[in-house]
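Ticket opened by: R.M.
Priority: normal
Category: complex prediction / small molecule

The reporter submitted a protein together with NAP and asked that the result be attached to this ticket for the collaborator who will pick it up next week. Submitted input follows.
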Amino acid sequence: MENIMKTFSLEGKIALITGASYGIGFAIATAYAQAGATICFNDINQELVDKGLKAYEEIGIKAHGYVCDVTDEAKVQELIAKIEKEVGVIDILVNNAGIIKRIPMTEMSAEDFRKVVDVDLNAPFIVSKAALPNMIKKGHGKIINICSMMSELGRETVSAYAAAKGGLKMLTRNIASEYGQYNIQCNGIGPGYIATPQTAPLRVPGNPFNDFIISKTPAARWGTTEDLMGPAVFLASSASDFVNGHVLYVDGGILAYIGKQP
Ligand code: NAP
Ligand code: GCO
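Result attached by the on-call engineer:
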């Protein structure tokens, strides 16, 4: 039997993490590099890609960065083909790129609703569809979709985001169902409330939401991107080859907790 710690290694693997110039994607890519993987990432413009390349270089990671809007299927197909030509067939795909618009539903335009669903749900479909054929040919693959607490819960002003992330949970289960026969595992990570630019507006001093989240989290703190690194490596490694269609919530216990008693 192989030493169990070797099953967590990503040596020799090629990983694509979308939207990974900073934030959660950057942390996951860093973890994968530390576990031995070759890192490919994209972001929506050259400025962000350059920022990401510099940040990876500063921590000793020689990443491959590409400009690509994940909602554009033609561009995504080109991206995957370019990575396969320049780096190799993708073993691990993390659908991380995402946006949120916090607008009361009755005030949200259909266009804004569609924009959120386009990035947070349609794009993981597009990118997974592009990566799957050569994962099948290669005989293995890992797809990890970055879901959310809002894959399970709703709250005011995030109707589009919750709808998209709920759909992403079911897309995760369907990819697992349809492609598990090819030794491809598709799972989700559901981060709790994590300190990144996306949640910065919620963490401003004096914002009652900040105290609310801390009272709803048994760990009594916001998550950090580092909290996601170990779970992400697990789901990308052969240690999880019989885990499929699962959403691993990394939330400090929010989903299990009614909230601090008054
Ligand atoms: P973030 O700081 O906003 O980073 C998201 C990244 O995706 C940014 O680099 C963004 O570029 C990029 N992106 C957006 N639209 C794109 C597109 N069409 N094509 C390519 N790249 C695109 O978000 P984060 O907090 O790191 O979150 C990353 C993922 O985790 C998202 O899916 C988010 O929904 C999810 N999540 C976050 C939390 C949290 O508490 N932070 C919790 C649960 C789940 P721009 O800078 O141009 O926007
Ligand atoms: C919000 C937050 C959340 C987090 C995350 C929680 O406005 O409620 O942005 O949606 O980003 O998705 O898991």
